[in-house]
Amino acid sequence: MMCRSLKVSSSGYYDWRSRPLRTRAQDNQRLLARIRTLHEDSDGVLGSPRIRDDLRHEGCSLNHVARLMQVNGIQGIPHKKRWGK
Hints:
- This protein has helices at residues 2-6, 10-18, 23-41, 48-54, 62-71.
- By secondary structure, it is an all-alpha fold.
- The longest helix has 19 residues, at 23-41.
- The mean pLDDT is 89.
């Protein structure tokens, strides 16, 4: 019934379901696992710029790290700005 309402063949659905993840999705999962470990090791303090600095050698951009963190609800604790010093 679901295949009929979505206008796809049942064989196409089962073929899609059994396909492996794309390379980009696999890379995102690997990077997200690395981001989570760095974030947990810092007790939740590090945000995307400082995590990106730690992942610099892996060739990922700040926007990529920030997007993955935002989609998965990971955020750092901002520092208070000190004025007058």
